[in-house]
User: Fold this.
Amino acid sequence: MTQQPTRTRAFRRIAMTAAALGATGALAACGTSGQPAPQSQAQAPAAAQDPAPAQAQGPAPAPSTPDESTMDTKPVSMATAHTEGLCKAASLDLSLVPDEGGAGMNQNHFTLRFTNKSGEACSLKGSPGVSFVAGDDGHQLGDPAERVPADQGALVRIAPGGHADSPLTVVNAGVYDETECQPALSRGLRVYAPGDTAAMFVPFEHDACTVAGKHQLSVDVVR
Assistant:
């Protein structure tokens, strides 16, 4: 008889405690301001978490690098256009022609003749590069020829089979003191056509000073 009221009271306390806890949870869910509690990060929709900025708001993407294999990378300039069609060593024959009455006071006059052996017209402008050479290795003797500046000449067009001439003056080595000149016999002349970097050769035996500063050669522009 004494145990039943005790159990009844215990059940009542448990029921009252559960009711109190339920009320507390309801108040927490409502919040103190009466507004619904915010959703947790896991429950928030993906679009509301941190939307990505629109493309117009971000930095522009870097442009892609062009494929150089599809581009014409050859530089174009006025200098290139001007030099197109110049005669090259491969299309020229070179000869040394003595001038009529070419012997002068301690000097001789010749003509360097450039003949166009190709099937297309080409042009020359300016004066050629000329120097004495000797030996099987073609080593240079003395100073190269003094040249008339190219701007004093005109562009000379040479048709197939035609030629252009450049006057050459050769001073005799005997005008210099032998110890100052130290002459050696040349085997020929190494010649560079105006505007070209490929050497040409023409036979010419002559005493050439091997000491620098003795200018035996002088050459004029082609004409």
The CA atoms of residues 10 and 20 lie 16 Å apart. The chain has two domains: 1-30, 83-219.
